[in-house]
């Protein structure tokens, strides 16, 4: 079922079907129930709204049937729902963080397992803002689909960049654990430069990153486009960021992770 055809309802139905298929032998239908869905996640700006709805649906169904789904299994069921049932070009990252919550270091190389994911203390993070474009973008599956095909073809630029992104993640985790926010800051900027090598970056996305950099912060895309992660330096005036982004037509919020 194409995602665009049925919106939120399509995601809920697909997650419900996958849940029934996966846990069918453990389910006892003793009374009817209904599922309702709403979301405040901005649409199509790379903030993982579709996977959040699928994860929430799976959790609601698990509660209804008194099932405990471990985080790793939950992330894999959600990924299968999007990739196999909805034909969305997606990877495990968004589903992993939504299943485990908090801050996670992830090794996404196959074969995936619980040992590939490690918790990182959220108190190690510097101040982080999210800025996004309130104008609706495109489904993340469009740019991701092209990138996946280039990977499968063995595109050397893509392969080399992905390897360097892996290095950025490893160095970033070490920097956080050492309290080295300056290195982390530089790696956030480097992440964006690497993304620009292999990914189509819209002018409005570049503008958001440039607004962050003009104010002395680091910036990178959150996902496929439409939102950016902003890391201010030291004791920066956060109100200056909200005013600058608002003046250019964007919205912001401070990221709080516990």
Characterization of the model:
There is one protein chain. The protein has 258 residues and is of the alpha+beta class. Helix content is 52%, strand content 10%. The chain is built from nine helices and six strands, in the order ααααβββααααββαβ. A four-stranded antiparallel beta sheet has the order 4-5-3-6. Strands 1-2 form a two-stranded antiparallel ribbon. The chain is globular and about 60 Å long. The two termini are 36 Å apart. The relative contact order is 0.13.
CATH architecture of the largest domain: 2-Layer Sandwich
Q: Quote the CATH topology of the largest domain.
A: Alpha-Beta Plaits
Proportion of helical residues: 40-55%
* Secondary-structure content class: alpha+beta
Main sheet strand line-up: 4-5-3-6
CATH class category of the largest domain: Alpha Beta
Order of helices and strands: HHHHEEEHHHHEEHE
- The residue-averaged pLDDT reads 91
Number of H- or I-type helical stretches: 9
The tally of beta strands, per DSSP, is 6
Main beta sheet strand tally, sense and closure: 4 strands, antiparallel
> How many whole angstroms does the radius of gyration measure?
19 Å
Number of domains as seen in the coordinates = 2
> What portion of the residues fall into strands of 2 or more residues?
5-15%
- So what's the oligomer here? single chain
CATH superfamily grouping of the largest domain: GHMP kinase, C-terminal domain
Cα distance spanning the termini: 36 Å
């Amino acid at each position: 079922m194409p995602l665009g055809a049925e919106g939120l309802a399509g995601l809920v139905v697909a997650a419900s079907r996958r849940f029934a298929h996966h846990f069918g032998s453990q389910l006892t239908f003793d009374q009817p129930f209904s599922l309702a869905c709403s979301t405040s996640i901005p649409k199509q700006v790379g903030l993982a709204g579709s996977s959040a709805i699928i994860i929430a649906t799976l959790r609601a169904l698990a509660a209804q049937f008194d099932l405990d789904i471990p985080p790793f299994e939950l992330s894999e069921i959600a990924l299968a729902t999007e990739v196999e049932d909805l034909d969305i070009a997606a990877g495990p990252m968004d589903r992993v963080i939504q299943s485990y919550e908090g801050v996670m270091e992830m090794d996404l190389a196959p074969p995936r397992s619980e040992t590939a994911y490690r918790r990182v203390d959220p108190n190690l993070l510097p101040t982080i803002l999210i800025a996004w474009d309130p104008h609706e973008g495109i489904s993340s599956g469009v740019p991701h689909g092209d990138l996946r095909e280039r990977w499968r073809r063995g595109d050397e630029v893509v392969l080399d960049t992905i390897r360097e992104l892996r290095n950025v993640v490893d160095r970033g985790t070490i920097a956080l654990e050492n309290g080295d926010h300056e290195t982390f800051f530089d790696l956030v900027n480097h992440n964006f430069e690497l993304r620009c090598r292999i990914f189509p970056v819209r002018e409005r996305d570049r503008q958001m990153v440039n607004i962050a950099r003009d104010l002395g912060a680091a910036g990178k895309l959150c996902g496929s486009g439409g939102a950016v992660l902003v890391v201010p330096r030291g004791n920066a005036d956060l109100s200056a960021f909200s005013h600058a982004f608002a003046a250019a037509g964007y919205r912001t919020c401070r990221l709080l992770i516990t």
